[in-house]
Write a structure and sequence with these properties.
The complex is a heterodimer of chains A (354) and B (274). Chain A is of the alpha+beta class and 354 residues long. Chain A has helices at residues 42-50, 92-102, 107-121, 136-149, 166-183, 194-200, 218-223, 228-233, and strands at 4-13, 16-26, 31-35, 57-62, 65-66, 77-80, 154-158, 186-191, 203-208, 211-216, 240-247, 252-255, 258-261, 274-279, 285-300, 304-310, 316-322, 330-334, 341-344. In chain A, a hairpin with a 5-residue loop joins β16 and β17. In chain A, 38% of the residues are buried. The chains are: A alpha+beta (354), B mainly alpha (274).
């Protein structure tokens, strides 16, 4: 089994602790996406696994073998970098063959592996070109080819699509997913882009300030965010987070005087407990009998309309409506109980009903 | 048209300013020495006098040996200095840029400091060292003290600093060790810079005067620059046509190097080739 295991991984640069203890187990062939805002430690985590940095504490095991102190080249891994990091003076073929050449593979063997990888990536016709004669997408493909020919136990992707334009990014995203499924190589993929995170990962690891906040499938991260940070980070536009207090024996939340029922759910917390009510913009329902919110901004996006409502200085609410919905000076909305998320106001953690 | 007149005039003037002395040397080399000495130099070369080139190359002039020999010494010196400086500064810049070791910055600043101490400043101590090593009047003594170079180290360091970290890391992932990285990635990637530096250093070595004058008194080790000076006698009649012919000959190799490597030279100084 070629899995990956991280045990209590920490990294400090001087006084500055970037990574505050990460434990993680990846199954064979699994693709885990590490997502978070810049500075959350996700790139550091990847570089530790790659062997480009040495951890301050903790262990890294690839395929059951402790590689914590090993050189990157001895770890049997391959990495795809954000700016491709192709050798500018080498042809596409040489770029892909370089690692194999160093390992002393016979020429025929190298040829066969590079040919197989370039066929897989559609690079056959470009093998003699230099990187500067290639487009961004082609360069990224060469970088992936360089990783594939090594036949590694583990793929590492460091924001590989960030330098591509939006259209190409969507296309390459699909390609990476298909390749990974086909080759069944365990992969770690770092990104700050939540769409990439949602579409690529078997599981997601959301990082925040050096701490893993949630590790779950994309669906679960979206439907049951572990805390307010994840709730606000995953999903676009972000989830509405409205401060309130628990009431009616834990079955309702009071928001600035308006009461929002929680349906059949009941929380085993004292009334008056500070909570944050979360609801995604697409779940807010127009309701003539609901509370009135003054409309601030209307954004027409073509297939949908975003409405930002609320009073200046007070809580704001974002609504996502299908096009054609009538929008006036104000909207009356209600919050369907089945789509509500509840978080503790003091800790930010998700609250579950009793 | 009027808008272009002044720039053109200035440029023409500049070209004349640079080209005229060279033309006078070429024209003068073909004329009779006595005519030049009287100051009656014509700007039109006398084709019949072209034999002087063959003459100086093979036999030299009073006070100096044959010029072919001096050209050979100059070329040898310039090549050894240029290649030696590159061979020395490339690894030293590599070390201070890519490796973490104790006193790394101290080493770098010590190298930097030598910028303030060119050969001319440390002439006497350098001569003393060469004398103690018994290297006076030898080709080694002529070239060795000029090989150490802070300029080249600094230039390479700048080039290396501009190389993206990810390229270094990609090579590490590919399993390239330090020497392999230097050979397979760093030197090819810095090719244009190396070529540019070679041009500058070759010309620098070719133009050396003070040090060769001091360290090599053996006429066999006379460089072409020294040879020209020796031809200008203080008491004997100077054969000016031969002096000018030698000057023209001395001009050809550095110009050839610059022209041949011009493409690389410009590339190396302007872009980073990344």
């Amino acid at each position: 089994m070629a899995g990956l295991r991280l045990e209590g991984l920490r990294k400090s640069f001087g006084q500055n602790e970037i990574l505050k203890g990460v434990d993680l187990t990846l199954a064979d062939g699994e693709m885990l996406v590490i997502v978070g805002a810049s500075g959350c430690g996700k790139s550091t985590l990847l570089r530790l696994v790659a062997g480009l940095e040495t951890p301050t504490a903790g262990r890294i095991l690839i395929d059951g073998r402790d590689v914590t102190r090993l050189d990157p080249s001895e770890r049997d891994i391959a990495m795809v970098f954000q700016n491709y990091a192709l050798y500018p003076h080498m042809s596409v073929f040489e770029n892909m063959a370089y690692g194999l050449k160093i390992r002393g593979l016979p020429k025929a063997g190298i040829r066969a592996k590079v040919d197989a990888a370039s066929a897989l990536l559609g690079l056959d016709a470009l093998l003699d070109r230099k990187p500067r004669q290639l487009s961004g997408g082609q360069r990224q493909r060469v970088a992936m080819g360089r990783a594939i020919v090594r036949d590694p136990k583990l793929f590492l992707f460091d924001e590989p699509l960030s330098n591509l334009d939006a259209k190409l990014r969507v296309q390459m995203r699909g390609e990476i997913r298909r390749l990974q499924r086909r080759l069944k190589v365990t992969s770690l993929y770092v990104t700050h882009d939540q769409v990439e995170a949602m579409t690529l990962g078997d599981r997601l690891l959301v990082m925040h300030q050096g701490v893993p906040v949630q590790l779950a499938t994309p669906t679960e991260v979206f439907e049951r965010p572990a805390d307010t940070y994840v709730a606000g980070f995953i999903g676009s536009p972000a989830m509405n987070l409205l401060p309130g207090t628990l009431g009616r024996n834990g079955t309702a939340v009071s928001l600035e005087g308006t009461e929002v029922g929680l349906g059949t759910r009941r929380y085993a917390l004292p009334d008056g407990h500070g909570v944050i009510l979360g609801i995604r913009p697409e779940h807010v329902a127009l309701d003539p009998s609901g509370r009135e919110w003054p409309v601030e901004v209307v954004e027409l996006l073509g297939s949908e309309t975003l409405i930002h409502a609320g009073r200046t200085g007070a809580a704001t609410l974002t609504l996502r409506l299908a096009n054609g919905a009538p929008v006036g000076e104000a909207v009356r909305v209600s919050f369907p109980p089945e789509h509500l998320h509840l978080f503790d106001r003091a800790t930010g953690l998700r609250l579950d009903p009793a | 048209m009027t808008g272009r007149f002044i720039p053109h005039a200035v440029l023409t003037l500049a070209v004349l300013l640079f080209a005229l002395p060279i033309w006078i040397a070429i024209a003068g080399s073909t004329q009779d020495s006595a005519v030049i000495a009287r100051g009656e130099l014509s700007l039109i070369p006398d084709l019949a006098g072209l034999g002087v080139y063959r003459d100086v190359l093979l036999h030299g002039s009073a006070g100096a040996g044959p010029v072919w020999r001096a050209l050979l010494v100059s070329a040898g010196m310039a090549l050894v200095i240029a290649l030696g400086k590159i061979a020395l500064s490339l690894p030293s810049a590599y070390a201070v840029t890519f490796f973490r070791f104790p006193f790394r910055m101290t080493a770098f600043w010590l190298i930097f400091l030598t910028l303030m101490l060119p050969v001319e400043v440390r002439l006497i101590p350098t001569f003393q060292v060469m004398s103690n090593l018994d290297l006076i009047n030898s080709f080694t003594g002529l070239t060795l003290p000029l090989v150490a170079s802070a300029t080249a180290t600094l230039l390479f360091r700048q080039t290396f600093l501009a190389i993206p970290d990810e390229l270094v890391e990609a090579a590490r992932m590919d399993g390239a060790g330090p020497l392999r990285f230097l050979r397979d990635i760093l030197i090819p990637v810095s090719g244009a810079n190396i070529a540019a530096l070679f041009v500058i250093l070759f010309v620098y070595g070719w133009n050396q005067y003070l040090w060769p004058l001091l360290v090599a008194t053996d006429p066999k080790l006379d460089t072409v620059v020294i040879g020209i000076v020796k031809m200008i006698g203080l008491d004997t009649a100077t054969e000016w046509n031969k002096v000018m012919a030698t000057a023209v000959l001395a001009l050809i190799p550095p110009v050839a190097v610059v022209l041949l490597m011009q493409r690389w030279f410009v590339k190396g100084l302007t872009e980073g080739d990344k």
